[in-house]
Amino acid sequence: MDRLPEVSAIIVAYKTGPAIVDAIDHHRSALPGCEIIVVDNASGDDTAQLAAAHLSPSQVIANQENVGYGAAVNQGLRRARGRYVLILNDDARLDPSAYPLLKKELERDDRVALVGPRIVDLYGKPMPSARLAFPGLREEWTRLAGRLRRRPESYPDGAPAPVAWLVGACILGRTELLRKVGGFNPAFFLYGEDIDLGRRLSELGFRSVTVPDAVCVHVGESSTSRVWDDRVRTVRRMRARDLYARIWLSRPQRMLLNLRRAIGISNQPHRLAYYLPRVLYDGPSLRHLRFPPPLTPDG
Description:
The structure is a single chain. By secondary structure, this protein is α/β, with parallel strands linked by helices. The protein has helices at 19-30, 47-54, 69-79, 98-108, 137-148, 175-180, 193-203, 223-227, 230-248, 251-262, 270-280, and strands at residues 7-13, 35-40, 60-62, 84-89, 92-94, 112-120, 130-131, 161-163, 165-166, 170-174, 207-218. Strand 2 (35-40), helix 2 (47-54) and strand 3 form a beta-alpha-beta unit. Strands 1, 2, 3, 4, 5, 6, 8, 10 and 11 form a nine-stranded mixed β-sheet that branches. Strands 7-9 form a two-stranded antiparallel ribbon. It has eleven helices and eleven strands. The protein folds into two domains: 7-221, Spore Coat Polysaccharide Biosynthesis Protein SpsA, Chain A (Alpha-Beta Complex), CATH 3.90.550.10; 227-284, no CATH class. Helix 10 (251-262) packs antiparallel against helix 11. The radius of gyration is 19 Å and the shape is globular. The relative contact order is 0.15.
């Protein structure tokens, strides 16, 4: 009988092509003994075939349609055999020294549900890794004030620190716990699922922690940048934020939030056209989607 792996790495791929082989080889080397699971979201190219050539059949899930990022991660969560699960974008490369640091912080306290590394680009420049607040009026006005003062948004640095939520490009958690809370909310097709998960965990009494000494390189050329232009990605992000608001915020809060977003300092008049109608009505509350059902393991 095969020995169960300590950690399962879930890589969601979409039109990744030969780069999926690099992702598999990198994490096989960086995480010896790791179970790697690739979920291909109906790429329509050779991504799934290339992954299958380097992994066992049980480690590749080839979807016939694009089910979205969160739902694909959940497929990997059901399949994972490891005690821990590392969720990765297909263009994220975890530094070999990072996993022990992340694991140590995760094991420090049972109430820590997720840990994440400091994410940098190929040149070592910091990229968004975590947020200190959930989307809402306070976060929006704080962000606007920072931009007016030309100050970059601050992220924790130095010692591990609690945050509101972690960017889902690279996060480590306990497999059993993530299954118990329903994994990512499949209502989010792309973008926003990491915010929602952080909020749900917080509501259940768990914490998310960033570990700045652990590093993950975001190599760029992600699936979305290859498929969509900036305008399409921006609209999809806005829609994801709208969905989050309808799940977690009251109607008066959403009205004021959409008004604030409509009067931003960039992307005008596009922001006005998108957000002003939503001040009047952005749809019914979706609070019934806050806590999805648990995930059942495969087999």
